Amino acid sequence: MIALLIRDLRLAVRAGGGFGLGLAFFLIVCVLVPFSVGPQSQLLSTIAPGILWLGALLACLLSLDRIFALDYEDGSLDLLATAPLPMEGVVSIKALTHWLTTGLPLVVAAPVLGVLLSLPNDGFYWLFVSLLLGTPALSVIGTFGSALTVGLKRGGLLLSLLVLPLYVPTLIFGSELARRGAMGMDTQTPLLMLSGITFATIALLPFASSAVIRINLR
Amino acid sequence: MSERRSLWEYANPRKFMGLSGAVLPWIAIAGGVLLAVGLIWGFFFTPDDYRQGATVKIIYLHVPSALMAINAWFMMLVASLIWLIRRHHVSALAARAAAPVGVAMTIIALVTGAIWGQPMWGTWWVWDPRLTSFLILFLFYLGYIALWSAVENDDTAADLTSVLCIVGSVFAMLSRYAVNFWNQGLHQGASLSLDKEENVADIFYHPLLVSIGGFVLIFVALVLLRTRTEIRARQLRAYMARERMQ
Amino acid sequence: MMIDLGKYAVPVLSAYGASIAILTLLIWQSLSRSAKVKRDLQEYERKQRSDG
Predict the structure, then answer these.
(1) What digits encode the pLDDT tens for the residues A11-31?
(2) How far apart are CA B179 and CA A117, in angstroms?
(3) ∠ CA(B82), CA(B87), CA(B91), 5° rounding?
(4) Longest distance between any two alpha carbons in chain C, whole Å
(5) Cα separation of A125 and A104, whole Å?
């Protein structure tokens, strides 16, 4: 399993692996927001937690089709299916790779971009925590969506349509956590809910994802 | 397996076509009659609500359609499970058939809900938790229908959409809770009141029940009709595929 | 015949109008697709019998 992880990580960061695209997109979105809503810092600081969450979410979405596409096309996925490694493990590793190469960089970049959007001082810590807790869920849910569309040519738009509604609970609790933290309010409920969602999806969704991969490999 | 008559016999496409064909006209007519009675009764023969005026009459459309929007998805969930467990094609096709009906019900629920709220809120849309949940449900329906269309192989499509329906159901319920949390702090009591849980006076309640009955039967009739179409369409595809191989 | 809806005439009538329109559209589309597929299938089966 570790070998698979290392192989996928290496594939992701080499040229053409798409590493850094998510970050670039995140940056662009955060730069575009003041152009669309106006530069008043009071407005920006109110919406900053939400915008940063939305930007991170969309940046995650962009790289989802890569999770299985390359292995599916060159037949490696078929090989992985017959390997002694359980498919649930394979999809979990894929999700972990996605998080390490896409989600985690976004988490690190977010506070920096928060400066651009006049994020209140209390907000930096909670933004970081909420994204750190929430992005794994985005990767695991995204892996499920990616598994559903792996066999389809140009399935990118369909992938977004399938995954975005599934992202809603994470987005609601994640950005609420960031927002409440920024305003100094009580953060217990969204924190618990967000953690609950993340841990539940990590534990349970791989079963659905692996069933879907096996269906698509038939 | 014993030869005792059971509901599962109708999982056989031929038997299903036979039974559904016989029963469909009656269900459709009954549904039409009930709906007409319910709406006419509610529209012309009930008083106005003292708070909401004549807009209360929208209840005869909004509540049944909202109920059906949710029940349609639930039916799709059950049909998906039956497909995954027992591999009855009729079940998978019934789920596919029900989805557009569910979408239409959701749209009616959204439109009537928004119009109903407009006099109260002054705008054509508010992010009321209930309305928002239906908007999310609408998106789930769209994704489900899109996935059916995107996958070529019938059995693969049935399998994938069934898993999507199951996972989607879990997330839909989670979203409902999340959306309530998301909006509860801002607008206390902004959600549309006067639904069936509240103490609705009999004078409103009875035509509402009739209207709900009408919607249920129309839903059943439409799903039966559309499932028959799906079965025929699948047969047609099978013929065309066989021809291509000859 | 039309009762007095007061100031709520527009919302109520447009809600009823929109709902009935959507239902009608759904029923019409279901019926016409059903008829088309049935026709195509019968056409196919007829051709099978005359060729086969």
Answers:
(1) 877 766 567 888 999 999 999
(2) 26
(3) 50
(4) 69
(5) 15
All residue ranges of chain A with pLDDT < 50 are none
CA distance to A66, A94, B63, C22, per residue, from B59 (Å)? 47, 48, 6, 17
Whole-angstrom distance, CA of residue A110 vs CA of residue A49: 10
> Would you call B146 and A193 a contact, using CB atoms and an 8 Å cutoff?
no
Question: Which residue, among B103, B136, B141, B163, would best test binding to A if mutated, counting the most A CBs under 10 Å from its CB?
Answer: B163
CB A150 within 8 A of CB A216: yes
Q: Which two tokens stand for residue B170?
A: 């879990």
Contact yes or no for B115 and C19 at CB 8 A: no
Q: Do A169 and B136 touch (CB under 8 A)?
A: no
- Among A189-193, B46-50, B134-138, name the one with the lowest average pLDDT: B46-50
With a CB cutoff of 8 Å and minimum separation 6, the contacts of B170 are none
Extract the runs of DSSP E, i.e. beta strands, from chain A: none
The structure's pTM equals: 0.92
Query: Identity (one letter) of the amino acid at A183?
Result: M
Of A100, A107, A98, A214, the residue nearest A163 (C-alpha): A98
